[in-house]
Write a structure and sequence with these properties.
Blueprint lengths: L1 H29 L2 H25 L7 H34 L3
Helix pairs in contact: 1-2, 2-3
């Protein structure tokens, strides 16, 4: 089970970094707000995951597990809000493009 959890963590990180690369590249090319929002969302998601993992990999931090958990949850809420805002912005932009605006 521990091996599977490490594989899942590795895949999550790989997915996040690929998405981050694509989002940064799209923002550099198009300078559209949606790609900036999605980039910030992915960075915040990585912060959330990092905060949650600190007590797992740094034994001295286990005494502050609740604090790290709360910080992780706060980052997660920001990540979700930025992600939804970014996707909505991208959809609106695409809709306007399709209508010729």
């Amino acid at each position: 089970m521990e091996i599977v959890s490490y594989v899942m963590l590795a895949m999550t990180l790989a997915n996040a970094f690929v998405l981050l690369f694509l989002q940064v590249a799209a923002y550099r090319q198009h300078h559209h707000r949606s790609f900036l929002l999605l980039t910030l969302s992915t960075l915040t998601a990585l912060l959330s995951l990092s905060a949650l993992l600190v007590p797992r990999f740094i034994p001295a931090a286990q005494a502050f597990y609740l604090s790290f958990f709360i910080a992780s949850a706060a980052f997660y809420f920001v990540y979700a809000a930025l992600g939804i805002w970014g996707v909505a912005s991208l959809f609106r932009s695409y809709g306007a493009l399709r209508q010729g605006a």
